[in-house]
Amino acid sequence: MTLNNKFLILLLLIPLGCSTPDQSIELPFIDTSSHASVITSQSHIIGTSVQGRPIECHTLGHGSPTILFLAGIHGDEAAGVPLLHRLHQELLDDPSLLHDRRVVIAPNTNPDAVAHNRRTNMRGVDINRNFPARNHRSHTRHGEQPLSEPESRALFDLINLEQPSVIVTLHQPIACVDYDGPARELAQHISDLSGLPVRKLGARPGSLGSWAGVDQQIAVITLELPGQASHITDEILWQTYGPALLSAICD
Ligand SMILES: [Zn+2]
After folding, report:
1. How far is the CA of 98 from the centre of ligand 1 (A)?
2. Integer Cα distance of 133 and 203 in angstroms
3. What is the 3 state secondary structure string of 75-138?
4. 141-180 b/e (C-beta count within 10 Å ≥ 16 → b)
5. What is the CA(220)–ligand 1 centre distance, in A?
6. Is 224 a catalytic residue?
7. Residue 208 contacts by C-beta under 8 Å, 6 or more apart in sequence?
C-alpha cells in the first residue's frame, strides 16, 4: 500500500477472480488531506494455468472507457512482461496518468510458457489461436475447439467482464504496430511514439485480434516489439516504449 498526501492506493489480492467482482472488498479510507483523490488499485487472479500458476490482473481507477494491456500470450516473446509491470508501477506512482480512465493490466497471461520460454501453453496450444473467432481453425496447436485452454478462457472472461474499448497486446519480434478493429488512428499514434512502423499482418485464425478486433470491433493494437527488446534493461525498455503505452490511455 502506498499513501501520500494526495492519493490512497488500496492494493488488494482477491483470489476470487475478476468474474466475481461483487465479492471484491474495498477497505474504508479516512482522508487526512484537504484535496485528496482516491485511486483504487486491485489485483485479481483471473485464472490458473495448466501447471497451476496464477494469472493475475491489476485494475486501476473507476473511469471510462477501459483500456486493457496484455503481455506474455506467447511465452517466448516476454519483453512485454516487465514493460507492463513497469506501466502498473508508473500508474500507481502518478494516477494523473490515468486521465480519469480505467486501466486493466494482465502482465503475464501465459505464465507457464513464460517460465519455460516457449510459445505455447503446456498442452502445446498457441493461446493466440484459441479464441472463438469466426476464423478459428481446429488444429492440434490451435486447440481442438475455441477456449479449450485455461489461459484463453481467463482472457475471454476478463474481456467480457471489463468490456474494454482498447486492447493493447504485446508480442515480439516483428518490430511493428499491427491493429485489428477500429484502431487505425491509435496505431499511427503509437507508431509515432514508438518508432515502430504500422504494418497490417493479417488476422490470424483464432487470434485475439480476430476475435476481439475483427469480430467484436474492439480496437486491438498488437504491439510487436523487436527481438532485441529482450536484451535491454527494463529502464531503457520503459524509456523506449513507455510513452507509446501511456498514449493508448489518453488517446
Ligand atoms: Zn506473438
Report:
1. 27
2. 10
3. CCCCCHHHHHHHHHHHHHHCHHHHCCCEEEEECCCCHHHHHCCCCCCCCCCCHHHCCCCCCCCC
4. ebbeebbebbbbbbbbbbbebbebbbbbbbbbebbbbbbb
5. 14
6. yes
7. 70, 73, 128, 131, 155, 167, 169, 220, 222
**pLDDT at residue 177, rounded to an integer:** 98
Answer yes or no: pTM beyond 0.70: yes
Q: How far apart are CA 191 and CA 241, in angstroms?
A: 10
| From 151, 162, 224, 235, the catalytic residue | 224
Per-residue confidence (pLDDT) for residue 25, from 0 to 100: 32
- Give 182-221 pLDDT, tens digit per residue: 999 999 999 999 999 999 999 899 999 999 999 999 999 9
Domain coordinates of the chain in residue numbers?
A: 63-250
C-alpha cell at 219: 480496437
Residue 144 C-alpha cell reads as: 481442438
Cα-to-centroid distance, 35 and ligand 1 (Å): 44
Is the pLDDT assigned to residue 22 strictly greater than 50? Answer: no
Q: Which CATH number fits domain 63-250: 1.10.443.10, 3.10.20.30, 3.30.230.10, 3.40.630.10?
A: 3.40.630.10
- Which amino acid appears at position 64 of this protein? S
Instruction: Give dist(CA 164, CA 161) in Å, integer.
Output: 9
Instruction: Report how far ligand 1's centroid is from the alpha carbon of 221 (Å).
Output: 12
**Residue 54 alpha carbon to ligand 1 centre in Å:** 21
